[in-house]
Amino acid sequence: MISSNILTINSWIRSAAPLADVIVICSTKGQVLCVQSSSEFHTAELKSGMFILDMFKSYKEPLTQSIEDLLNNQKSNWLTMNCPGKEHALDWRLSTVVIENKNYILLQGHHCNRQLHSELDPLTGLPSRDAFFEKLKELALPSGYVCVVDIRKFKDINQTYGIACGNEVLNGIVSLAYRVFKQARIIARLGDDQFCIVGDSSYTEEIKQFIADLDSPVYCLGQLIKVDAYIGSCAFPETVSTLNEAFEGAMFALQAYKDSDENQLNRNWQFSSNDYRKKLRAQKLKDLIGPAINKNEFYLLYQPIVDADKNIVAVEALMRWNSSEEGPVSPAEFIPIAENNPQHILTLGSWALRRACSDIAALPSSWGDLKVSVNVSPVQFKKPEFLQDVRDILRLTGLSANRLQLEITEGVLVSNPKAGALMLTRLKEMGITIAIDDFGIGYSSLSYLKDFSLDTLKIDKSFVDDIVSSKKNNAICASIIDMSNRLVLKSTAEGIESLDQFSALKELGCKSFQGYFFGKPQVLKDLLKLG
Ligand code: C2E
Ligand code: CA
Ligand code: CA
Fold this sequence. Notes:
The protein is an alpha/beta fold and 531 residues long. It has helices at residues 4-13, 52-57, 61-72, 129-138, 154-161, 163-180, 204-214, 243-259, 273-294, 331-339, 342-361, 378-381, 385-397, 410-415, 417-430, 447-451, 461-465, 471-486, 499-507, 524-527; strands spanning 22-26, 32-37, 79-82, 91-99, 102-110, 144-151, 186-191, 194-199, 218-220, 223-225, 229-236, 298-306, 312-323, 327-329, 371-375, 404-409, 433-439, 456-459, 490-493, 512-514. Strands 12-13-15-16-17-18-19-20 form an eight-stranded mixed beta barrel, surrounded by four helices. Strands 2-1-5-4-3 form a five-stranded mixed sheet, covered by helices on one side. Strands 7-8-6-11 form a four-stranded antiparallel sheet, sandwiched between helices. The protein is elongated, with a radius of gyration of 34 Å. It binds ligand C2E and calcium ion (2 copies). One calcium ion is lined by residues 437-438, 458, 494. The site of one calcium ion has 4 residues, from β17.
C-alpha cells in the first residue's frame, strides 16, 4: 500500500531501475516510504517508516557524513522534478549513491518554493493542516464539496500492529482516496488519522465507493487489517454558502456520523442544515437553562384527564419554559437538554413536583379527590435521594400521597430492574400511584409488567392518532386495554383530539382519557374554572 504520488514516481523511475540495485523513496524529512530492491542486499534494514539517516548511520563514519551532506545540502546533485498531473504533488529530488558496490537511487520528497508546499506531511506527502487551510483560501470555487475521513480506532492499529504498519495503512488510505476521488482539487492530511478531500463536484458516489473499498481487509506488512472510517461531507452552495463553511459542515457531519449508532444501516455522512440548526439551538439552550432556573423562567400548566363521562378525575402537570432570550421553549426540546446535566433536571424535576403538589393541595375542598400526575425523569428516578425528596415534598405541601401519581417511562425499569423495583415498592408503600408513560413505544419486554407493581398504562398518542383509520392501531389499543384489565391496571389513552377517537377508545373499554379534545395544557385556575 503506497500512495499514488509515489506510484507515479515509481513508474517514472522504472526506466532507471535497471541501473540501480536499490531504490529508496523517502519523505521530505528522510522517512522511508518505500523500498524497491533487485536483491535483498541491505534492504532488510530499510523499512517503511524508519529514517534513512538512521539506516546509513549504521555504516562507517565517513559514509554517514557524506549521506547527511547529500540529504541536507541543496547544492548537492539532487535532481528536482515535479510529479506530473497532480496539483498537490511533491517535488522530488533524486540522487545516486554507491555503498559497498551497490547502486542506490534515493528519491526524496523535496520542499519546493511554492508556499502551498511549505507544509507537507512527511509521511504521505500530502499538504498538512496549515497548508490545507492556505490552499482552501486560494481555491475560488463557485461550488464545491468537502469530505473528511477519520480512521476509526487508528490508535489501536498502531498499538496492535506497530507504527510501520500504521503508516502503511495511512498511505493506503491516501492511495485509495486518489483512486476514488479522481477529480479532487485538494487531498490533505489534517491530523494523525484525519484526511480531507475537496472537489468541485458532488462526491456521493465516490464516498459510497470509498466506503465499499474500505470494507475489504488489506494485507499490510504481512498482516491482514480491517480499516474502518468515519466520514462527513458537506456541499456548497446547496447547504452552506462558502467553502470554509462547507469544511465546518463536513466536520459537523463527521461528528454526527461518529455519534450515530454503529449498527445503523446507511449511516448518514451528509451534512444536514436542519441537524446543524438543532445542534446550535441545543447548544444555546444548554447555556441558557442554568441561568433560567435561577431566574424562575419555568412554570407549570395542567392538562385534564377525564373519565368516560368527561368528568375531570386528574390533571397532568406539564412544564413550560418562557425564556427571556428565546421565548417559549417546548418541554419536548428542553427536557432532554436538561437531562444532559443531572443538576439541571434534578432541580427542575424537584421544583415541578413541589409546585404541582402545592398547587393541588391548595385547591378548594370540592376538588378534594382530584389527583395530580407528575412526570419523573429517569435521571431523578434512578437517584436513591428521590424517595426522600418525594416524602419531604408531600409533608411540606400537605398533599395526601394517594392524590399523587408519578409518570415514569419503561426504560427506567428495564435498565436497572432491581433498583427500579425497590424504588417502586417504597413509593407504593407511601400510597403514591405509578403510571407508565408513552406505553408501547419503548421496550418490547413485557416481563416488567408482572415484576413491578404499577397502576396505570398511558397508551401512547402515536397509537391513538390513527385508531379510527388504522385497523392495526385499533388492535394495538384494544390489546393494551385488554391486557391492562387482565393485569388489574388502569389505562389512560393520550392525545385524543376527536370525538371519533374518544368513542372508539370507550368502545374498547378504556376508562380514562387525555387530549386536546378535552382540554389543552392550561393554567390550573382556568382549567378548573376557579375564580
Ligand atoms: P408527555 O408526558 O407524554 O405529555 C404529553 C404531551 O402531549 C404534552 O406535551 C401534551 O401537551 C401533549 N398533548 C396532550 N394531548 C394532546 C393532543 O391531543 N394532541 C397533541 N398534539 N398533543 C397533546 P408537552 O407539554 O409539550 O410535553 C412534552 C413532553 O415533555 C412530555 O410528554 C414529557 O415527556 C415532557 N415533560 C413535560 N413536563 C415535564 C416535567 O415536568 N418533567 C419531565 N421529566 N418531563 C416533562
Ligand atoms: Ca406524561
Ligand atoms: Ca405521554
